[in-house]
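QA checklist item 7 of 12: single-chain prediction sanity check.
[x] sequence parsed
[x] length recorded as 172
[x] structure emitted
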Amino acid sequence: MNTWIIYSLMGAGLLLMVATMILLSRLIRMKDAELRNGSKMELKVQALKIIMPLKVQAYERFLLFLERAQLPQLVKRVYAPGMEKGAFHLQLLQNVREEFEHNLAQQLYVSNSTWNAVVNAKEELVNQINTTFEQLKDEEDVSILAQSLVALPNPMVEQAVAVLKRDFERLL
């Protein structure tokens, strides 16, 4: 009978030890998962600290592109009295293209709607420049062309600026 009690106590002890091991194992797994989630969260916070300034810079650069590409500013920068029609046309298009290409990589940091608005604004500017040049008579002075360009509205540019500002506010 004493052996039976000893075996029962040993069994109970063994059962208690197994239950303790299972409980400890689960606690370790829970703590490990908690640490991994905390590490993931910390990584996300660190990534956000790096990416957020890049996103802000992208919005700034696209806004600057749109402001510099508006026809009054563009003509003011490019036009010089006595310029030939072909040279003026080429300089305007080249200026828009270079400004746009300089900021191409920024599309990584903005929404698709913002990127599309910037692309549409650039296309509108190029079309307006080309159309105005096609309508100019050969004998007309380039200064008349410059005045015509400055007077044109840029609704797609204005729309792109509005999209940029709206998306930027959402970012914050």
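[x] summary fact logged: The first helix runs from residue 2 to 69.
[ ] second reviewer sign-off
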